[in-house]
Each structure stands twice: as C-alpha cells, then as structure tokens.
Structures
1.
Amino acid sequence: MKYQFITVEGNIGAGKTTLSHLLAEKLNARLILEQFADNPFLPKFYENPQQYAFPLELFFLAERYKQLKDMIHKQELFQSVTVSDYLFTKCLLFAKVNLPQEEFRLYQKLFEIIHQQLLFPDILIYLHAPVSRLQSNIRKRQREYEQKIPDDYLFSIQETYTSYIKEHNIKTLFIDASNADFINDPSHVQIIMDALEKDYGDGQHYITLP
C-alpha cells in the first residue's frame, strides 16, 4: 500500500464511517473512528446552536486530539496502515461555520497550538454528495437529533470543506458519491481500492462511482 495514513472525509451523512470500516477491513488497517456519540453537547447543539456551539466544538477538539495523539504513540505490530473517518482540521472547518467571529478567533488559537503535534494523512478521500442525498442518508440512519438539520447548514459545511481542500492543494481523491452504495455494491469500494494503488501529486483527483 502506497499510503500509510488514509483519511476519509465528507459532509454529514456522506458515508465516511461505512467506507472507513470497509477499507480498513480490506487493508487489514488500524481503524480510527470519531466518537461523536460521546459528545454530550451534540443533541443540545441541534436544539439550540447559539448556546451550545462553543462547548460542542471544544469537546470535539479535545477528543479528536487525544485520539490522534494516541495513534502516534501506539505502534501496531501487525497493521502498518491506518484509516480514519475524520480529518483533524474538521474541528476548524465546523467551528468556522458554527461559531461567531470572536469565539472562532479564540478557538482558532487553540487549534493552531495543538494541530502541529499531529500527523497529516498521506491522502484524503473526500466523499461529495448532493444535499438531497445527504438528507436521505441522514433519515435512513435515524439519529433523532439529526432529523431537523436544515439544507442551508449542509450547504455551508460542503462549501467550507471544498474551499479548504482546494485552497490548500491537499492530495485528495475527490469522490462523486451521488450514487454511492458501499455496502450493497462492492464495485464502489473496489474502485477506491484500485485508486489507492496509484501515485498522486498534490491537488484533487476526481473519481465518479457508476
């Protein structure tokens, strides 16, 4: 495998965790999954974003940092590849959407202090799907607190991700996941597996799933 640290990213409901599980299984890789359910502020945030956005983002920052820091220190004897279903910079991107300007500046200072201590992935897999598809996926997984997420919020997250990837020229497999069905169509996972066998330069490399 050409890439030792692979990160899967995308909007809410894009299929990040599903794909990460399947890739880790095929690659016999160590799997790092975001423990979003441990964040006590998440359901409260969707009910009252203004009140709970800052503690929500601080909790995620601390949890993601601890998880990825542990990854650096813990060597796996039989697993040379790591697959993660989130990018640490996700903290900053969501904070940019969710926080008022003054709180975001404070959050950004904290982020900049700690993110330098973490490894950046060798390659990013970004799952891009239209908001209508994201909403359909969100309904199917039936997390109660997610069912009222507005389209505008998902558009904002999508735009923030894609702008960040393009501005920083990150080595990215940019997957059109409009028709993605990783569980029922093994060819979709295989297309990504085949893509991971190639050498890529920096920037976005576009792949469509049939």
Note: The chain has a mean pLDDT of 94.
2.
Amino acid sequence: MPPVLGVILAGGLARRMGGGDKPLRTLGGRTLLDRVLARFAPQCAAGVILNANGDPGRFPEFPGAIVPDGVPGNPGPLAGILAALDHAAAHHPATRHVASVSGDAPFLPLDLVARLAASAGRDDAIAMAASGGREHFTVALWPVALHAGLRAALVERGERRVGAFLRHHGAVAVSWPSEPGDPFANINAPEDLAAAEARLAGIERR
C-alpha cells in the first residue's frame, strides 16, 4: 500500500472542556497531542499533519504541517478531513489515503492504520474504527480521491454529519475490543480527563 498521510483533528471548539485547545491539556505530565502523536505517527509513512484553526504558533513543537479548515464558520470535523485530503492531493502526490484521528484520544491502537487499510480493500473505500458497539466516525481511512466529492457535500449541499457522509459512501466498520480499556476513549469533559488519569495510572502500575 502507498504511504498513508495522517491527520490529527484539533479544529473543534472544546465547549464541554470550557474552550481552548483540548489537545494541549495534559495527561500524566504530557499533552494529549503528544500522546496521540506518539502512538499514531509511526503508523503513517507519509507523515502526520495537524488540522487546527487560528494561530499555528500555539503548537510550536508539532513536527508536521499545521493545516486550517478551508471552509469558514467551523462546520465541524468534515472540514478538517477535507483540509487534510486537499493537502494530501497538493503536497503528497504518492499518497492515496489519509488516516484521521481526533486529538483527544490518547490510547489509540498501534495497529490502527494497518487494520483499516486491510479492511478497506479498495482504493475508493472508506474504513472507520469501531469498539464496544459504537462507530468512531472521525477515526477513519479516507481515499484522497474523495476530496472533490467531500467538498461538494460540505460546501454545496451543506452536509455537516460525518456519520451521514460515511453511510452514503458505504464505509466499512473495523472493530477493536473495548476491554480492558477502549482504545478510542476520548476526552470531552473534565470527568473524562480524570478517568484517563486513573486508567493511565493503572497501566503504569502493571
């Protein structure tokens, strides 16, 4: 398979966390972004970019390009995925797929990209992660060739729902076990961060 470009989605408004940059919150003394990058980057041979809006200087240590939404108004994760697909088409001509993850999921599986790629089967197919009976729409493998269709859906038709777009394109769900801990658990609220701290402490004790 040609090299995959990774994108960490960090363009959300983090309302339930009181605003600000959720991936810059710390877990066990390291930022969530650092923890996501450490698990995700080795899986992406074409490198990893960050989808974030506003001043890119907030992420001085990020090793890749910082790519903002190309669609105004913070329309949601689809805009970040579109920005990544457009970036791949313009700057990584050998790359056929972009793998997306959220910037607040510090326990990502180390076989994420390989399993998504194996399950997609075709260059035009989307594969998304699932665990515990739940599909994780923003953790997925996207064909770069889809960027024109995604732009039409987002800009011309006003589609904002990632799940609806995935269903329309027949995305394949790839499941991981959710025990002893869900690898896709993310940090949406302060209580999620506290739970992640407890989980991390348990891992470090083993």
Note: The radius of gyration is 16 Å.
